[in-house]
């Protein structure tokens, strides 16, 4: 027999679609998904979870498919290749049914309780809620890089939000346009939405150390965080300059329309 509670949940239009991009997270994905299910179920928030497998070479896909088989609120998108986090999030957004779309990393560095708190912050005039990390899960050098980047973003674009690259965010469907949301890369999504005139808020969130697996970007003990981090810094520096050039054309744009009261 099926689980009546699960059957009822599957018939409910979700308020929140939680998109979890995953690349080689076989030791984390099951616990991550189950933690999100437990917290959102306890909070009585209608939800769905979309796990996007970004070309994992381990058993992440198999683990995600098992979760989907045992829970009707879990769906799996397999990209059949490694395309990067922005593409994984974009494809998750395209499959999402909720009015709110949450981004939540699979590496267990964030708390699903913080996710619930962010969802509860939404009111009629709010368009997205961003997390602001406490950096307790990062080493000193990585923290310096991240805080320096965020300071540059705040100064250049005059945004009040403190953490543009936090891995936990909640966005309304209107600003979460998969065709334009990542025009300038994932870290610049926050200033881009502010420039476009969407209203935002920020919540301090806890950042924990990884329990298993490795960071896909930063390698502790390597010069400048390793070659992947150097490439990441170079790419996002180019994107930052590109957004700076295009900012006048993005100002007040709201998916093709203008809006007064820019939060910048």
Total strands: the figure is: 9
Radius of gyration: 18 Å
Average pLDDT score: 86
CATH architecture group name = Alpha-Beta Complex
Can you list the strand order of the major beta sheet? 3-2-1-4-6-5-7
Structure notes:
The chain has 264 residues and is α/β, with parallel strands linked by helices. It has a single domain, classed as Spore Coat Polysaccharide Biosynthesis Protein SpsA, Chain A, CATH 3.90.550. The chain is 39% helix and 17% strand. The chain has 8 helices and 9 strands. The strands form 2 sheets. Strands 3-2-1-4-6-5-7 form a 7-stranded mixed sheet, sandwiched between helices. Helix 2 (29-42) packs parallel to helix 5 (112-120). The longest helix is centred in the last third of the chain and has 24 residues, at 227-250.
How would you summarize this macromolecular structure in one to three sentences?
The protein is α/β, with parallel strands linked by helices. Helix content is 39%, strand content 17%. The strands form two sheets. It has a seven-stranded mixed beta sheet, sandwiched between helices. A two-stranded antiparallel ribbon has the order 8-9.
């Amino acid at each position: 027999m099926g689980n009546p509670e699960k059957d009822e949940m599957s018939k409910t239009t979700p308020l929140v679609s939680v998109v979890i991009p995953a690349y080689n997270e076989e030791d984390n994905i099951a616990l991550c998904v189950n933690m999100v299910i437990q917290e959102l179920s306890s909070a009585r928030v209608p939800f769905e979870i979309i796990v996007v497998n970004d070309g994992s070479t381990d058993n992440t896909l198999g683990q995600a498919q098992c979760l989907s088989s045992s829970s009707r609120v879990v769906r799996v998108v397999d990209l059949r290749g490694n395309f990067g986090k922005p593409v994984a999030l974009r494809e998750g957004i395209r499959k999402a049914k909720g009015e709110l779309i949450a981004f939540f990393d699979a590496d267990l560095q964030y708390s699903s309780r913080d996710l619930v708190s962010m969802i509860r912050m939404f009111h009629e005039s709010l368009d997205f809620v961003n997390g602001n990390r406490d950096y307790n899960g990062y080493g000193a050098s990585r923290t310096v890089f991240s805080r320096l980047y965020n300071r540059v973003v705040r100064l250049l674009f005059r945004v009040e939000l403190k953490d543009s690259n936090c891995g936990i965010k909640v966005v309304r469907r209107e600003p979460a346009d998969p065709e334009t949301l990542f025009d300038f890369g994932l870290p610049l999504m926050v200033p881009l939405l502010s420039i476009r005139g969407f209203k935002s808020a920020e919540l301090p969130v806890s950042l924990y150390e990884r329990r298993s697996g490795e960071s896909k970007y930063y390698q502790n003990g390597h010069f400048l965080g390793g070659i992947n981090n150097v490439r990441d810094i170079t790419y996002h520096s180019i994107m930052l300059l590109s957004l700076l050039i295009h900012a006048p054309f993005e100002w007040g744009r709201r998916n093709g329309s203008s809006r007064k009261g820019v939060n910048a």
